[in-house]
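I had to read the description of the data format several times before I understood it. For illustration, here is how one protein appears when written out as sequence plus structure tokens:
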Amino acid sequence: MERGKKTEKRTMGIARHLMMMTALLSIMLMVPAIVSAENVLITYDLPSQEVVSALDAFAEKTNLSLMYLVSDLEQIKANAISGIYTPEQALDIMLDGTGLVYEFTSDTTVSIRKNGSGEPGNLNSKEPQSPPPLVENSQPDQVLLAEAPAASAASADGESGSDDLSQDFVLEETVVTASKRETKVQDTPMSIQALTGDKLEEMAAVGMEDFSDRIPGLTVSVQGMGMNSLQIRGITTLTSEQTSSATVGYYLDDTPISSPSFVPDVALFDVERIEVLKGPQGTLYGEGSLGGTVRLITRKPQFDEFEGKVQLVGSQTEESDGFNYQTNGVINVPLMDDKLAMRLSGSFSSNAGFSDDVNSGDKDTNDSELGNIRAVVRFKPVPRLEITPGILYQNTDGGGNAFDSDLYGDMEYFRETPNKQWYEDDYILYTLNADLDLDWASLVSNTSYFDREHSSMMDFAYINGLANQLIAGYNFNFGSMLGLIDSSPYTEQDMTLDTTVFSQEFRLVSDDTDALKWVAGVFYRERKIDNRTYLGNEQFGSVRSNLGLPGGETIFDSDFKQESKQIALFGELDYTFIEKLTLSGGARWFREEIDGDSTYLTAGQAPNPFALVGGETISNIDQEDVLYKLGVKYNPTDATMLYAQFTQGIRPGGSNARAAAFGGGADVNTEFKSDSTDNYEVGIKSDWLGGRLRTNLAYYYIVWDDIQVLDRGSLGQTFVVNAGEAESSGVELELLAQPLIGLTLGFNAAYNEAEISKETPIAAGFIPKGATIPFSPEWTYTLFADYAFPIKGELNGFVGADFQYVDDRVEDIETSAEDETVLDSYQTIGLRAGVMKENWRFSIFANNVTDERAEMRGTYDLPQQGWVRNTPRTIGAQFTYNF
């Protein structure tokens, strides 16, 4: 499509959505009229006392501001109050018979004065009228404003920062570094959600599947054993090829660790927070952030305190014959006062599995173990310079996926191979971070080297079925002369994927004191990929021996190597023209060279399907592009922010490793191009009731060009093509409230509609207009509640519950040759309860309480239809000790 026509189409698409944007913003702006401080329930226990003292205590509990004349309140006593009431009910009780009246003049302010005309105590209960003005006279202390003192931030899960839970009557203000500088989530003009490390520990989260349901709009799809991919806003990886990059950036601190097509699981212990940035993040995070970015921020060594933590977790999963357990530990050691500290952490978890193979009799075949160790040193040789080297090693070993066949019992399946499937994933990450304070800016250097080795063996029944067809053909044509060959019992695939990545980023970050704030930097990366895939079949070897053909047991054998080098320049700036209005802009220029070399052998092609054919594919890609960002934010009040932004994302092209199997030609291109996203977004973030109610809303419209899609050849070999255009639009809502001290209620929801916007021809036919993008549910939402309460002395209790819903999804994209496979919607419930003191915490939990069997992915490798399932009901306990 010509650039002009693309621009025209995008403009029309934006226009179609303007009415929805306007309606959604209108709804958000109506929140103050719907929810007011008068309706919040609070626990009171105040004795009868001087009314000024009583009102001061009332203001501290409710976070309301009270205005009154001191002369009106002299020698008046307030009534005692005990129980749970709204602020309005509490004032009615406290001021009854005192001759005082009150009126809410705003959501956070109450005016109190003498009743001089027989008015009701609550002036809001009659027709509104302007109250007499509060005039300041010659006595400066006669007009007072009673306010609650600044409260310490409570964690979103209801845990207290101290033993006095009553101090935590405000919602958490999480600080993030998504914009390469520290900002509060509510002050960051983008759709971003953060989960704290405390919340992850409370959830007993081990991997990304354990937290993804708490972030509507973020989904995890299972691509294979130990191979998961992330999707945000319907922008998903439509290819499992190792030559294609991910659509969601995945970072550990400042280091990109995304592998092509799938990301490694990282042990979620000693994590400070997880940040999920929704929408393309091309200017600051570069390629691979088509749909968004996920950042895992680890805890840093502390100079001032020797501290540590030990954590034990045990659980039992339905349908499992074993026991799950996890042990975690961390120690922080100051070595030199304010100069040198070290932090060591380790984690080991064992998942017993819950899926049984009825053929071999093996139980719990999807078991897994994960071990992780991390060491970080923080060194401050001079006051303005901080250097932080670190090393992380992780090993994961596991069996097959959580297969469940439709033909057998619960969580049972039939595998053809007598050998247990397995995978192993090892990686080591070296990092070196340096931060130099230049007074007017900070100079940051981040160096990293990532080395990952992934290997697996799996039964490949899909290819085995084709192999048996070919063996039957041999028996029909040659069996009587050369000898009959029994049908093949199984075919196995061995796969190895080695990835190394070196990256270096330098950036300057301005200080936060001026109206102009900016970030500028340079990024360099080298990445090497070595992918070997081999399928073998014993009976093929027998057939070839009888026919006098070379090749042994090989059905196909692919060896793919790719090297890429990228350099990028990037920058963003924010300028506050007036006190409440900020404009922002950014750009990223990059150039990347990608060299690929692939050899490929395959059987199954005419005229002799047992002969191996193939060749070598060499590709050289040199691409250069510029990504842009524009934005505006407006703060009508200190607690409300409106924003609009345009952002872009890009994913690099690559080489088709298996093009040689088709002999090149018109069917298969040796290379595929980059694809890109343009994101148009508006949103509002607001806090109400003195920080006890939070409402965030975002609407987006994304155009996705030149989508990288998996195409299929005659024998099932796959390759990547660029297939037209898609559109993704939706709404993201976050509601968070603390109606009572210690009680936090939340509702997060996302609606998404992602589909192909025009019919696109491919080798396997065509993709119809309106085809749904895989793994992009229309609706996802989460409801949760957490309540922390005092028991006795320093002992506190807590309870919590959450409900997650994920709508229907399609597993693969619809084509003229193949219908889409629909994965049913599912919902899960989690419960938890426990007790805690200053240095320890004990809890029990139940995940997937209703024992839901969700369809995470279909599987066609079995001799029958089946599914990869979620984890069944799991009940366990967790103990944490801090020292």
Q: What stands out?
A: The longest strand covers residues 554-578. The chain has three domains: 33-146, 175-293, 294-882. Residues 1-7, 31-36, 126-143, 147-168 have pLDDT under 50 and may be disordered.
